[in-house]
Amino acid sequence: MNDTQSQTESLLDIVKGIRSQTIMLPEFQRDFRWELEQTYDLFDSLMRDIFIGTIIYGKPSFGMTLREIDQRPRKGKGSNGPLATYDYSTAEISQKIQTQNLRVVLDGQQRLTSIYRAILGRDSVYIVLKDDIDRENISQLTLEEMVDSVAGEESATSISVKISDAFGAEASGLDDEDLNERFAQSRYAIKQLSDIEEGERKPAEKIYRRAVRKLIDLFKQQKMVAYYMLDMSLDKFCVFFERSNSRGIQLNFTDILAAKLYHGFNLRKKIEEFESQSKLKLNREIIVRAIAYISGSERGGTISIDKKFILEQLEARDFQTHWDKTCTLYAESLHYLMSQHYILSQEWMPSENMVIPLMIFRHQLKGFDQINQEQRSFLEYWYWASIFANRYSGSSNEVIISDCNAFVQLARGERINARGYFVRMRSLITEPDDL
Q1: Contact predicate 204/158, CB 8 Å
Q2: Is the C-alpha dihedral spanning 390, 396, 397, 398 positive or negative?
């Protein structure tokens, strides 16, 4: 992942990118959550040239599902409607990056969405001007010097400008006369200026027009928002989100996998279905790794259950084929451990990854009630030896695969032939203090 130098863009660049869908979100990103007060503070900072933080964009080199920036109403009809999602293959992502400058928002969704919603008028945001503006020197004043506050409604006692009106004036190319007509419809003009002569209205109109023009200048400033653009492989994209947990939102590679599979297999929905029908809490990484093992076994060749293999090689069809069966294997394996008093409950599992070899063992059998005495003895030995040898403390994929292979051989009545397999079962518990 090569970090480029920090770059900048204007607010209009952001609006253009969102409207053209060249700025999009990964499907798994959390929803837009900012309250309007946070939008007011954001625009106050922009006008005062206070740093609002750096936006981080990614240019993924892999296919995934993206979704639009949230434009839904905050309340009422449509507020809970689904956001549009778009499923792109690796080739389509690559083409959009090269020809349309597609950017995926990695960090900064709340700020970008707030800017977009205010400028387009999805949220009503006004700048309220000071009452004591020097009308003689209005042309020399900055926007910061003119603005008293940012609010959600226009003032009846002070000149106010709606953020989206300034954008509309720029987009429509409104001249001074058009702006005067718009000002005449404002709450301030109706309440304060309806009974005065036209000549006395002109200073107020001039102030309004000046504020609109300065807002447009703000929108166009190329150095308004700082951003980094990152070229990212799939596994580094995953690591970025696993480590970028500043808001307390835990994201891992299964969230990214869910975005990749979204249109062919709704992973989140399937998890919810399982947990609504079972008293068990589903560990999705366990299921995903077990599916990777089973799918790899069926394809032949080297079996892998690491993130890179899962993210790059597993497709929706693998989950369509194996999901329900693997969830059943998961439930049956945990129930077996509880019924045989290895654990008291799911929460007592020393390492949940130890369930995977049992799931693969059960996959080879008609049921746990078909286990013979030799298999039962090995299972008991493997379980306690693995715990006292601390074999699963690091959740090593190699250990999981080695144990899965051993249980496949056990289920088939074959001899476990992995070199040094039993040596690695040697206990680390030699004294009471070791416990």
Answers
A1: no
A2: negative
Beta bridge partners of 25: 67
Q: How far apart are CA 196 and CA 96, in angstroms?
A: 57
65-84 CB burial, b ≥16 within 10 A, e <16 = bbbebbbbeeeeeeeeeeee
Assigned token pair, 229: 């653009």
Neighbouring C-beta atoms of residue 247, cutoff 10 Å: 10
Two tokens at 10?
């204007």
On whether the pTM is more than 0.90, the answer is no
Tokens of 26: 């990964």
Contact call for residues 109 and 181 (beta carbons, < 8 A): no
- Are 148 and 138 in contact by the 8 Å Cβ rule? The answer is no
H or E segment to which residue 70 belongs: none
Task: List the beta strands (DSSP E) in 52-173.
Answer: 55-60, 64-67, 85-88, 103-107, 126-129, 147-151, 160-162
Q: How far apart are the first and last CA of the chain?
A: 43
- Residue 423: which H helix or E strand, with range? none
Which residue, among 175, 171, 238, has the nearest Cα to 205 in the 3D structure? 175
* Angle (nearest 5°) at CA 262 between 67 and 56: 40
Burial profile 179-216: b = 16 or more Cβ within 10 angstroms, e = fewer? bbebbeebbbbeebbeeeeeeebeebbbbbbbbbbbbe
Amino acid present at 225: V
- Give a three-class secondary structure readout of 325-372: HHHHHHHHHHHHHHHCCCCCCHHHCCCHHHHHHHHHHHHHCCCHHHCC
Neighbour tally for 156: CB within 10 Å? 12
Successive 10-residue mean pLDDT values, the chain, 435 residues: 72 96 90 94 95 91 89 92 90 93 92 97 96 86 95 95 96 93 94 83 93 96 90 76 56 76 86 91 93 93 87 90 96 96 92 95 94 96 92 84 95 91 83 78
